[in-house]
Amino acid sequence: MKNCIFCKIVCKEIKADIVAETNNSIAFKDINPQAKFHILIIPKIHIKSTVDICQHNIHLLSDIILLSNQISKSTKIISNGYRWVFNTGKDGGQTVDHLHMHLIGGQPLNWSPA
Ligand code: AMP
Ligand code: ZN
Fold it and tell me: Which one of 61, 73, 98, 105 has the fewest beta carbons within 10 angstroms of its own beta carbon?
């Protein structure tokens, strides 16, 4: 998708600190980390948000989750826990309109979204 910053990361038009990748997904460090460990995992094809997940692309979500588990195991953040976050739309605080999962951890996390 033209003008999508995450599509540009997928096609390497914009540099990112990529930590892992599969045929369908790519994981890279968040440029503005909210915790000691903060990466984003995205589908390589442009899906706008969780609203657009359907029967035809649900396998891409599984791929993201499996890649997250692979990363959390290899980095050891799995031992103390972590958080998955999908922000959706304006009220959800989504700022980049390309579906992404935040994988956040590496320290105790607070919880006060509202
Ligand atoms: P959200 O607010 O849920 O849409 O999350 C978007 C995330 O993308 C934010 O945490 C940003 O810090 C992150 N972000 C934006 N641009 C980049 C970039 N070029 N490389 C890495 N992370 C980015
Ligand atoms: Zn995109």
Answer: 73
